[in-house]
Write a structure and sequence with these properties.
Oligomer: single chain
Order of helices and strands: EEHEHEHEEEHEEEHHEHEHHEHHHH
Structural class: alpha/beta
Shape: elongated
Number of helices: 13
Radius of gyration: 24 Å
CATH class of the largest domain: Alpha Beta
Strand order of the largest sheet: 4-7-10-3-11
Largest sheet: 5 strands, parallel
CATH architecture of the largest domain: 3-Layer(aba) Sandwich
CATH topology of the largest domain: Rossmann fold
Distance between the termini: 18 Å
CATH superfamily of the largest domain: P-loop containing nucleotide triphosphate hydrolases
Helix content: 40-55%
């Protein structure tokens, strides 16, 4: 598991877990990220929901010359349209009903650091022109204000999908699109990151058990095989939710296949049907090490044979000793 690091940001410090990047696709993403982090250019991160776009944005910040400054995230999809301008730029006392005092928005406290605009495609059209003006000169006015405020901020944005269609539909300004596009990082979904799954499970289980003050759980080979066979439409967010349930319900215990949610077991069985391993049709990602692929096939076959090593070895046409050797070298306990 990647080590956690403590990083000071703004008013305090907190633990940041580095992203898992064992798969070939994520290693390529990280190479690009490392190359652009020291350059103060605009960066847009594209990927499905739950793939860890904010984690990559934080990593970009940590590797940049702004690392000692604040990292301020704003989920554009979570802010009501009527409040968006105030949330971003802040407002002056009395600027609207309920504005009983001056409030700083997200941009002002990001001075010297990074402002992460998640789901930027959901930014209200009426605010986009003001964001464009800010990007051009790094100056803005609070709602109801008359004085310009200058800040030095790097903008990193993220979307579920490229904004081309939003621009064509007139829901996103073309000039702002070209201004923020910069260098694009595309984050692959978890189903395409087979080599990352096991270390992700280990990292998340350790993190979640520590958060709840519980003894960490142990994953059986059969449970791990089902996790590998699941398509994870919700990506890392879905995986985290499943593991948190296990961490809370089975602290310090061994997780069996039957302990996993029924829907996950059904999906995994559909992805690896009975007999699939014998016919050589178990799907394994091509971007993971061969040893991981072999371990995945063996784990899936063990799941089909209810953990019986002798029958699994016979089904695969290998010796029981070979099965045991790969299990002994596995990354999770059986």
């Amino acid at each position: 598991m990647r080590a956690a690091k403590r990083s000071a940001r703004g008013s305090g410090s907190h633990v940041v877990f580095e992203p898992i990047m064992r798969s070939r696709s994520m290693r390529e993403v990280d190479r690009t990220l490392r190359a652009i982090a020291p350059r103060d250019v605009s960066v847009s991160i594209v990927g499905e929901s739950g793939t860890g776009k904010e984690v990559l944005a934080r990593r970009l910040h940590d590797l940049s010359s702004r690392r000692s400054g604040p990292f301020i995230p704003l989920n554009c999809a979570a802010v009501p349209e009527a409040l968006f301008e105030s949330e971003l730029f802040g407002h002056e006392k009395g600027s609207f009903t309920g504005a009983t005092e001056r409030m700083r928005g997200k941009i002002e406290p990001a001075h010297g650091g990074t402002l992460f605009l998640d789901e930027i495609g959901d930014m209200p059209l009426a605010v986009q022109s003001k964001v464009l003006r800010f990007l051009e000169n790094q100056k803005f006015m609070r709602v109801g204000g008359s004085e310009k405020v200058s800040v030095d901020v790097r903008i990193v944005s993220a979307t579920l999908r490229p904004l081309d269609d939003e621009v064509k539909a007139g829901r996103f300004r073309a000039d702002l699109y070209y201004r923020i596009q910069g260098i694009q990082l595309e984050v692959p979904p978890l189903r395409q990151r087979g080599a990352d799954l096991v270390p992700l499970v280990r990292q998340l289980l350790a993190q979640l058990s520590a958060r709840h003050g519980l003894e960490p759980v142990r994953m059986s080979r059969q449970a791990l095989a089902l996790l590998r066979g699941h398509p994870w439409p919700g990506n890392i967010r879905e995986l985290r939710n499943v593991l948190e349930l296990l961490a809370v319900l089975r602290p310090g215990r061994r997780v069996r296949a039957e302990d996993l949610p029924a829907a996950l077991r059904a999906n995994a069985r559909g992805a690896v049907p009975t007999g699939a391993a014998a016919q050589g049709s178990v799907e394994v990602p091509l971007d993971q090490p061969l040893s991981d692929s072999i371990a995945q096939i063996i784990a899936a076959t063990l799941a089909l044979e209810n953990g019986n090593r002798t029958r699994a070895a016979r089904r695969l046409g290998i010796s029981t000793r070979t099965v045991q050797r790969h299990l002994s070298a596995g990354e999770l306990e059986g």
